[in-house]
What does this fold into?
Amino acid sequence: MREKIRFVHIVPVLLMLALLGMGLLPRTIEAQSGITTPEKFFGFQLGSDRKIARWDKIVDYYRLLEKEAGGKLKVVDMGPSTMGNPFLLVTITSANNHARLEQLRQVNLKISDPRGIAEQEIKKLVAEGKAVICQSMSLHATEIGGAQMAPELACDLVARQDEETQRILDNVVFFLVPSFNPDGALMVADWYQKSLGTEYEGTGLPWLYHKYAGHDNNRDAFQTNLVESQYLAKIMFTDWPPQAYIDHHHMGSYGARIYVPPYAEPIRPLADPLIWREHSWYGAHIAYKMEEAGLSGVINMAQYSGWGHFGFHWITPFHNIAGMLTESASAKLASPLYIHPDQLRGGARGLPAYEEQTTFPNPWPGGWWRLRDIVERQKVSAWAALDLAARNKETVLWNAYLKAKRQTERGAQGKPSAYVIPIIQHDPLTAVKLVNKLLAQGIEIKQAAKGFSTSDGMGYAAGSYVVSLDQPKMGLIRYLLGRTFYPDNAYTRNNEGSPIRPYDMAADTMFEFMGVRVDAVDGAVKAELQKVAGPVSVTGKVAEGNFGYVLDGRLNDSFRAVNLLFDKGVAVRRADKAGDGLRPGDFIVAAGAEAVLADVAAQTGVDFNALARDVVPESRELKRLRVGMYQRYSGGNMDEGWTRLLLEQFSFPYTTLMDAEIRKGSLNDRYDVIILPDDSTAMITGERGAAARGRAPDSYPAEYRSGIGNEGVAALKSFVEKGGTLVALGAATAFAIEKFELPVRNVLANLASKDFFCPGSTLKARFANTHPLAYGMPAEGLVLFLNSPAFEVVPNDFNERYETPVIYADRDILQSGWLIGEQYLVKKAAIVTAKVGQGEAILIGFRTQHRAQTHGAFKLLFNALLRRI
Ligand SMILES: [Zn+2]
It folds into this structure.
């Protein structure tokens, strides 16, 4: 085995000699071109053991390259990242192409949406245009290979003088996103630097590597809640739709060295078939170039299924972009990891054993695994994609045209033919948000100037939106606005019949998540329609009222308005009964502060309607509650981060509450409500156990080991008994049930996946909207279920202390996604409230605020933060 490893090390040496001969090595590059190499600039070869180039230095390097590159490389600062660092877009193409970039952009836009353009004209555009390729690095900030590799890639592209490089520059416009997560890049570099030489060297961060989203930052491409997603959506979905996109990641350490396209089974239908062939085409060239370079351990068509969540690389196929990823085996950040040959294993999708197979002909034999190994493989893969596009520019562009044209034709012929977003909605302001999110995807939306009816007999008011399917993004529209069922077949069940977990979600039905009514229309829509040119904004109005004003409690934005009013010291009351045009949950504001109200109406879009009579004496005054948001270390909790983002989006003030403060007790002095985000009991308490998520607590330095311990449990209990409210989300409900000894049972707790399974799906539920927790909700609607608990109250002497304001429907519960074992959910409680002493525990089983995406259920959390005084 030792010989074998030594032999493998000879190959790179031979390769280096060959490259030296071809004049491609850094030293030569500098002499030839006057361009500073990364090695010279950073003072070490990128990917060297125990070295990470920091993001600020990387930014400086790209700016230097821009100066030295003779017009071949331009740096655009897209704007600040979430935490205020520069988010760069680096454009690399020949100086000639740069000089006429806007013209090339217009050509690219026409090829990507060829409606109304004659084929002859397209042929000219294909000849004139350039292949557009986008690649992004280190979205997951601990997956550092991409961001460390890219400066070398950029340098080679502008410095190398050979024919291959020239062909790329002439034929390709390359958009390089050198870090998809600059904040995380900085956090990881600094954490690594601190850990060097300690026993924690090379371990992950104790907190989230994105302020709000952590690893979930690639679950945001369809909802674009994060500013980084908004930047990339602008590039890829509207300004410069590329023909191919690659997102470079890392995976676990003990299988293949690098996964390259295509995806494994199952795939998600409704993309143009050319997309899947393009994945194979690019993937074959990438893998081929890797073998040519003597790099072992490359696998394709494995591990990552073609049906995945709508992150960027998985959503792009439905934008007619060949959206792909690479996944490199991880080292320990920049520290090498030794892997014994017998530690290497298969067992993943498409790699049953760690042995030679068609898609894995050259297994890596084991030994030291280094960041430099990752950098080299990723660089070859990134280069190979550019090379393929450059050699086949006209095919790439012609097929981009074909994909767009054929998807448009499928949309025109298929059913449904369009989706209508009615202007009359339960929460019209949230419907506008849906429209704006669709526009951010580059989807064409039209608005009706007058009322209209469809050939299937449905009538719609003026102002309703129509999304026709005869447009290039037909496949995307079908998934965001149409019911979706995850396949249940031989690819999604193992041999014993147990379901194989989808990669994250089983549906991405944005309209369902958002609680917006969208109607599928089969026939023609005959209406006077006008294209919506840009984001829709709504300005609320303040009516003239002698008795004060009412804010519609059904609007999510009314909660934001209420918070802004609180900020200005304006008193807000809430109606508990219907009557006088009021619904339970409507907000009431007295007359007198009209200037403030006008300002809040303008900011939020919420109308302040006039009250018909003075109802103030009959309504309850709301007091601003003090919210504690529980946060832990041990890698951080993404659900905590997203919850924080949501609270900020709706202007709820909160205080981050950590273990030490909880342990100290006397929580009622500082908080009225404490939120426990989705987490296991073991992670909350800090006990080690099988149920713990993530790595073991002792894999972090002592100061970053989390857990509230027994004192913390006692403190939370005392907090609730003395009148506090504990809101437990998702898996954290088990903590509350166990520690507060509630007579509540999770009916799904002990079921095998073959009997009950429901990953990331929308389910029908009933909301008791006269209950304060469900104020503003429709009587029936959807909730997002993601391996969630469902409850029943175990009969006891004090059943009156427990309420179930949200229950699952009694039949046909699945709206979209995948549900096995519906019978277990029938009429079970989705939310339980439990009186505990003077206070209350609120158990929200499903995902009420999932990734700040489930607008349709936000109010259930918001009400929990407002209702108690
Ligand atoms: Zn990743």
Summary: The chain is about 35% helix and 20% strand. The CA atoms of residues 309 and 378 lie 23 Å apart. The pocket of zinc ion is lined by residues 140, 143, 249 (CB under 6 Å).
